[in-house]
Amino acid sequence: MLCLVSRKIEMDAAFFNNVGSEQRSEGDGSENSSSRSGVGGGMFEYFGWVYHLGLNKLGHEYCHLRFLFIRGKYVEMYKRDPHENPGIKPIRRGAVGPTLMVEELGRRKVQHGGKGGDIYVLRFYNRLDETKKGEIACATAGEAQKWMEAFDQAKQQAEYELARGASARNKLNMEEEIDLEGHRPRVRHYAHGLKRLIKIGQGPETLLRQSSSLGPNSSEGYFQTDFGDAVEAYEWKCVRTVNGVRIFQDVANTESGKGVIVKAVGVIEATADTAFEVILNTARHQRYEWDTLTGDLELIDSYDGYFDVVYGTFDPMYLSRWHSKKDFLFSRQWFRGQDGTYTILQFPAIHKKKPKRSGYHRTKINPSSWEIRNLNASMGSNTPRCLVTQMVEIPSKGWWRWKKNHFSNFEKSVPYALLCQVAGLKDYIGANPALKFKSAASVIKSKVPDGPVSNAEYEAEAVQDEFYDAISAGSSSSDEESESDELDQKDAKVKLKNVAWAISSLALKRASIANANKELDPKAAPITIDTKQFHGSFCKGNDEADTNCWTSPSGMGFMIRGKTYLEDNSKVKGGDPLLKLIAVDWFKVDKAIDRFALHPRCLIQSEAGKKLPFVLIFNLQVPAKPNYSLVLYYAADRPPNPNSLFAKFVDGSDMFRDARLKLIPSIAEGYWMVKRAVGTKACLLGKAVSCKYLRQDNFLEIDVDIGSSSVARSIIGLVLGYVTNIVVDLAILIEAKEEAELPEYILGTVRLNRVKLESAVHLEV
């Protein structure tokens, strides 16, 4: 259970992995109206049940149910709900400081109260000293993401107070280093001056849920069409319907001779969290009710919280006349996007723990993927809905044979059994009311009038202990050895959202008409940029046939926010980039490079580079063995316009940059599973990975640490395995959140054509 305030603002979130579920004030129907609210509009409060993980003084692991409060920048932890137990004292308390980092560690199995289950773990640490750390866990990935937003809100509140000129004492207190393994901090008292809250999630009894009782989080969906933020080459044709589930074939590349891509699509009356948990759950008694093929599953191994290997058996008597039993192994890799969409990739696998078994024929399950995303509730209904899509790769010969025979044998094939999983999932959830929880989002109004709430009104005294003390793994009291009492669930109501998304697809045929030139100084005379003066270590391609090279495509392949986006969520095709890509460096390094612009080999250090009005240096740090750095140089023919959004980003705070820097990825050519992993949705980089900025002279350098996110590491690991056979398009832009900032424009693009890892040049740091 998690309670969030009704407004969400721009967030300083360099340490987030999966952020995207937005909260709105009561009656707010615009996707971004909440983003326009400032922190100073009032204090925010978040609260809910979590698990506190760590080691006790004897070195034993514990997993305790705790009630967590976030008030402004302060954090409190209770053994019981203080709403139902007035006067109860928090067992831990601390302040969120500017060095707090939050990392989502993914799914983990734990034991609590004699029962086992899966939870989603968040790790907290001090970026200046990673030995100072702690962990909490939540019931679903959606709740974990909301807690990440809550901590980011607290961090932004601290930044806001500093920006408003907080006292030197408070500034000093926020910068003090603390001992995570030390004593529990003293308890202090605060006033409760809050505005309005939203209660989200279920009670503690559903945190560690069993297979018969899944407690979903009320993630809210925004993307009602099948469009991403990059134009894809799929052309889907409906070829069958099974129990209300449509089966499509991709007919865009029917003559390619490769495997045929088929997908099943169905709308399920449950949240995406619920559907995701059912799909991932390996409990036999549950899978027997909906999965005809992979009902008998055994978890063999798991890695990093986002990847596991499962073993399964099935009796083919339902698929063919042959009765020899079959077994299989496949890996599952999953992640949650910033928009709340889940993606699960399933590949055939081998594992030393499961060699071939006597009496069973080892077979390969077709490569497949799941995509689960929330939909808005129907008009007049509070029932949550999600769109579930399963894509399966089928050998082309078998597919054409089945089509010619009017699908007479298709119903007895493994691919057909896979595609029927969507229909089985839909019927199973529909027949189990326990899985169709009400969307637990309710607005709780306080008696405090609207308006700014000062720091003095909120806190009774300064807190010198940072948050790590409030959540540290160590404990000096028996309070951490005991369990908390059970609490009752409370009913909640659902907020209906704006359905203006219905007309958003009409914008797809419109081209962007943004006048990006207003972002550059109109008083400065533009210069002519001669790209022949600049030479990076990675070569530029002459045409599409070239490989191991880069080019700079137009922005027409990317969808960006249009002029009326705040009213109707419409997106338009991007125009020409504002900045010109003049060179690319491709380095192999022993460790990640920060502040590369100061390195003698950086292009900006050349005489020609120093004469450019402005250069954006985009340093993508790729974790691997060895590490790589892809450095993109974007030049402007004039300096930024001092009154523009571009200048605000270039010269603004890191908090503002993290909240606005956006990347749109797209696999233009390549294996379809890699396309599903990368996706085409825009990603706020500062909310997904750690970004560092260096502003000097005529340049801004952005160092993007892909390795700072376990999800990003997982995806980039998959991409590197296919990198020599794929074409990657990237677009960089600044997210527009105010009407005056619309329409958006693209800062720069790059196309990476079948990159060879061995072509990277070694760089001495």
TrEMBL record:
<dbReference type="InterPro" id="IPR002913">
    <property type="entry name" value="START_lipid-bd_dom"/>
</dbReference>
<dbReference type="InterPro" id="IPR023393">
    <property type="entry name" value="START-like_dom_sf"/>
</dbReference>
<dbReference type="Pfam" id="PF01852">
    <property type="entry name" value="START"/>
</dbReference>
<dbReference type="Pfam" id="PF07059">
    <property type="entry name" value="EDR2_C"/>
</dbReference>
<dbReference type="InterPro" id="IPR009769">
    <property type="entry name" value="EDR2_C"/>
</dbReference>
<protein>
    <recommendedName>
        <fullName>START domain-containing protein</fullName>
    </recommendedName>
</protein>
<dbReference type="GO" id="GO:0008289">
    <property type="term" value="F:lipid binding"/>
</dbReference>
<dbReference type="InterPro" id="IPR045096">
    <property type="entry name" value="EDR2-like"/>
</dbReference>
<feature type="domain" description="START">
    <location>
        <begin position="236"/>
        <end position="398"/>
    </location>
</feature>
